[in-house]
Amino acid sequence: MTTGPRNPNRLDVLRTRAVAHLRGRDAQRQARADATAALGVIYELASSPSTAPDALALLHELQVHQVEVDLQDEELRRSRLELEASFNRQVQLYDSAPVGLLTLDLNSVLRELNQMGAMLLGFERDFLRGRSLENFLTPEGVSAMRAVLARVAEGAPTGFTELPLRSTPDAEIRRMHASACLDPAGGGFLIGLIGINGTKAVPAGK
Question: Is the model more confident about 171 or about 103?
């Protein structure tokens, strides 16, 4: 069987048609229909002696492309699993840290806190989220916290202060060492709390 010379321009046009069929406008919904259409293009080319070599070349190229896509998909799945494992590990580290960790927005509202942070403040985490930390400080503590957060907001890498917490019905005023920095995730501050002179955490719910 004789065949005509391969035309690079024609091959480019055919490649474009086949790839367009494979991709489609919505890859997830159109994948099966597009694959069928692409095979139809190849079949059309293979049925003519003059374009059969182009059909074989295009089929090979699409097969190579599919292998590349499969490898990329496998790598993406592996990367996703690694990221999820790393994220879960960071959540565990934050939640189980032996010091109180509080994440505040720019208005000192508690966006998140770990178990020890809730115990030091003496309330359940669900109760504390969305409330201002100032509600749990003495007036002296409010002034101290505002001052240290202002220093951090102005560029200090870290600020340190002492924060006296409001007394509860069955506990005296508790004093905490506090360190503050900008929240690495942006939009607020990260506070670390440690009790002073044997100050103990109050069971949540007080």
Answer: 103
